[in-house]
Write a structure and sequence with these properties.
By secondary structure, the protein is of the alpha/beta class. It has 2 domains: 143 residues, Rossmann fold (3-Layer(aba) Sandwich); 65 residues, Orthogonal Bundle (DNA polymerase, domain 1), CATH 1.10.150.240. 44% of the residues lie in helices and 16% in strands. The strands form 2 sheets. Strands 5-4-1-6-7-8 form a 6-stranded parallel beta sheet, sandwiched between helices. It has a two-stranded antiparallel sheet with strand order 2-3. α1 crosses α3, α2 packs across α3 and α6 crosses α7.
């Protein structure tokens, strides 16, 4: 498959961030006196914007959502952000994309300031031509918002040359809304059933096969 612009989600695609995200959510919910069944039950918070998750999964009103976000960031900014790891083979995959002349872009609904710190920690920032995420003031919040921002920043004359790689339905929805293809990957936090339901363009199981799909 011939793509020139490779857009990558972060959580569940480039990094395995489950520990840090779920611990941060658990910290916030504890502060709010909201019962948590288990850390496993908080996996659903990985992917969508945090404000959306607190509303949908906890039924919080606007004021409580903001308190939850503030508590989440209290833990995440210093601890949760580093309870994280690169997926095996990811750095080699990024190097391969650059060696094949592709434009590599991070497209995450995580706040951009955090995304940059994470990529710096794993020493892979240099392989990204653009790092794009949400803003702390939520003016750019959803995956669609982030993708629209990227398309404004990068002069892509042919959208058929761009593809988003992600692990949740939000990636598929965002890609379709801006008119690009989406590769859904099975090594992250989504499922094949979710990808089929939301009509993913492609489904790939491993980082190794993702590289084969894109550069061979």
């Amino acid at each position: 498959m011939t793509f020139k612009y490779i857009l990558l989600d972060l959580d569940g695609t480039v990094t395995d961030s489950a520990e840090g995200v779920t611990k941060s959510v658990a910290y916030a919910l504890d502060k709010l006196g909201f019962p948590v069944e288990s850390h496993w039950s908080l996996m659903k918070f990985i992917g969508p914007p945090l404000s959306e998750s607190f509303r949908e999964f906890c039924g919080f009103d606007g004021e409580t959502v903001q308190k939850g976000i503030n508590y989440y960031r209290e833990y995440y900014a210093d601890k949760g952000i580093f309870e994280n790891k690169l997926y095996d083979g990811m750095k080699e995959f990024l190097i391969s994309l650059k060696q094949h002349g592709m434009t590599v872009i991070l497209a995450t609904s995580k706040p951009e300031v955090y995304a940059k710190r994470i990529l710096d920690k794993f020493v892979v920032s240099e392989y990204f031509d653009l790092i794009a995420g949400s803003t702390l003031d939520t003016s750019r919040n959803t995956k669609t918002d982030v993708l629209k921002y990227i398309l404004q920043k990068i002069d892509i004359d042919d959208l058929s040359k761009a593809v988003l790689i992600g692990d949740r339905k939000y990636d598929i929805i965002g890609a379709k809304e801006v008119g690009i293809k989406c590769i859904s990957i099975l090594y992250g936090y989504g499922s094949k059933e979710e990808f089929v339901q939301y009509n993913a363009d492609y489904i790939v199981d491993t980082v190794e096969n993702l590289e084969r799909f894109l550069v061979n």
